[in-house]
Design goal:
four-stranded antiparallel β-sheet; 2 domains; elongated; Neuraminidase; single chain
Amino acid sequence: MTQYATELQMYVGLREIEKTTSQAAQYIDDLKSGGQLDEINLELTISSELKSILKDVKSFGDININTRSFTPQLKAGRKDQAQNLVPTIPTIEQIKPSMLRQLTIPQDMKPFDIRACRILPDGKYLILDSHSDKSSLLLFINVGLFMKEVMKFKGRSWDTCFIRTNTVAVTLQLQKQIALVDVEKNKIFKSINLSHYCGSVASDGQILLVSSNHKSTIVNLNDMSYTILEGIVADRVALFKGNIYGTMYYKNKVCCYKSTGEPLWTFMHDDINGAQGLTLDKNGFVYIVSMYNKSVVVVSPDGKTCKTILSVADGSKSLYAIDINRETGIMIVSSEISVDEDGSFGSYKKQYETAFVYKI
C-alpha cells in the first residue's frame, strides 16, 4: 500500500483493515465475557454402592477443581497509538512552484550578471555576480534584501556551492583554481589548484566535484586527494545520494552517472534547449534551466519523463542559475526583469537581472 497506493487509497485501505481487526477483537472480547475460554476440570465422586465392592480399597484419591478465568492480552492499535501514513513521493505532475519573493538589488550594483545563486542552510541567499574582469560573491537575507559583499575576485567566476559551516567554494576559471571562502569572515582561507579549467562545482560536505568541458575532478575534502573523471564532461554539475548529475549546454543533454563516472542514464527532450542551471530536490527530481526556451524543466528521477514548471507565461526571462534547499523545498532562480526608468527623452524600459524565490 505504501509503495503503490495514493493517500486516499491508503486511507480507505486502513479503514478496511481496522474494520476487520475490530471484528476479531470484538469476537475475542465476547469469548472472554461469555466464559467460553474458562478452563474446565472434571470431578469424580465414587458412589456409596460401590464401597462394598471396593471394601479393600481405602481411597482412589482426591480430585480438586481449580477454575481460573482466561485473561487474553489484546492490544488494539487504535486505542494505544495513532495511525501513521507513510509520506508518498509526489508525481512529476504534482510539482508546481509558488512565488514567494524577489531579491531586491541595490541600485548602485546594477546591472547584475548572475552566474550562480545558492540557498544556504540558514535560509540566506548567496549570489555570484560575474563579469569579464571581476566577480563578486554577495549575501542576501531571507526576506530578499542585500546584506553584504562577501568577496571580490579578479576575472570571471562561473559557479559557487555550499560545503559546510560558513564555507563555500568558488570557481576561478582561468586560474584553474577553486577558492574556499569563509562567508562569515569574508576571506579566502584555501585555494585548490586543478589541471583543467573550473566550470561548475558541487559538494556534499565530504567531496568537491569540479567539472569542465574536457573532464572533471573529485577532491576529497578530508585529505585533499584528487580523482580525475575523464568520462564526465558537463557545463553544470550536482550531487545527490552518491550519484553525479550534469548538463551539456550545446548538446541539450541531462546525464546521470555513478560516483565512479559510469553512465546511468541520459535524457534529451525538445523542452530542454540550452541546458544550464542544475539542481535536485529531496525526492531526486532533477531541475534544469532551459536557457533558450526561457523555462525550468523537471526530469523524473529515472530520467524518463519531464515537465515544464516555469515558462515565459510565468514571467521567466533570460534564466540561467537555479538552486533548491532540499530541507525546506525553497527554490531560487535567476531571471531578467524590465524596470521603468526616466531618461532625457522620457521614461523607458530597462532590463536588469535578479532572482525569484519559490516554494515547491
